[in-house]
Amino acid sequence: MLAASDPNMIVASYGIAGLTVAALWRLFLWLRSRPVRPDPWGAEIALQLEDVQEVCPHCSTPQPPDAWFCARCDNPVGPYHSFTPYVYQFSDGQICRADLSGQFHLSTLVIAGYLMLSIRFGVLAPLYCLAFIARLRSVERDLDKGKPVETKPG
Asked: What is the residue extent of each domain of the chain?
């Protein structure tokens, strides 16, 4: 209670409280006076986006607005293809069709990714891995013979 009765401490606490209130007031005025930024998705941008045509992220082919799969590479397209659980299943199916048919670029990273994808299949993972490795061997044999491998453009 010694500090509460000391007049110097009372004046100091009033001074600190006053400085804090003044600083908060200046902060409020500074935030209020900042320039207002235009809405990035305002009417002008919306008009510009109406003329933009969507393209496939895999092969860059222009897509119609109601497309679910690319007509050129069969890759899933559309505004919600990775977000909607129902359509996501088709996206996974596209990945599995691509790797089991051998229509992918041969690289160590891609092959490792496809083998890690097999973890999602649970009990069927060994069957998927065997089918994938068998297709990979046939692709390697075709490459060794000089035979062109069937791949889709993209």
From this structure: 2-33, 55-145
